[in-house]
């Protein structure tokens, strides 16, 4: 190839590259002239809560000594639900109950109104939710699945700021075999789970 042909060829290449670059820049300019955006703002995500408390301030509902046959002890405790999710609340115990438990009749009622813990002054019963012995309660109501459920009034769930009072009545059976026995220390547990 002669120098003249080579120069023509190089000139043609430079012109082609220049036209290509200019065309590319023009295309970019055209693209940016026809632009549009939209957005979806202020997204957020939060979970609900399940929270239940009682009014015992860490004190026992009852601590009875020297009870006799047919002696009854009555105590009330108020539960307050402050969670944001509708929930079920079940009552149970994980405690071992001593040999007196089989001779203690236990009745648990749900209702409204009470004096200061553990007084039942002003209590109004809505329903009896358990009747049996303390020993039977401890052997059959051992977790949420087997626990005793109760709802405020005629509701079928607990909602935020619901209250419910539980009245416990324990009565020593008139049975000579109950003498000198004890239940040992035991607890009652209320567990809330959202539906």
Describe this structure in words.
- This protein is an alpha+beta fold and 195 residues long.
- It folds into 2 domains: 1-34; 52-194, Immunoglobulin-like (Sandwich).
- 19% of the residues lie in helices and 29% in strands.
- It has 2 helices and 8 strands, in the order αβββββαβββ.
- The longest helix has 31 residues, at 3-33.
- The protein is rod-shaped, with a radius of gyration of 38 Å.
Compact summary:
The chain has 195 residues and is of the alpha+beta class.
Instruction: Give the CATH level 1 class of the largest domain.
Output: Mainly Beta
CATH topological fold name of the largest domain = Immunoglobulin-like
Order of helices and strands: HEEEEEHEEE
Low-confidence spans:
none
Q: Approximately how much beta-strand content do the residues carry?
A: 25-35%
Count of discrete structural domains:
2
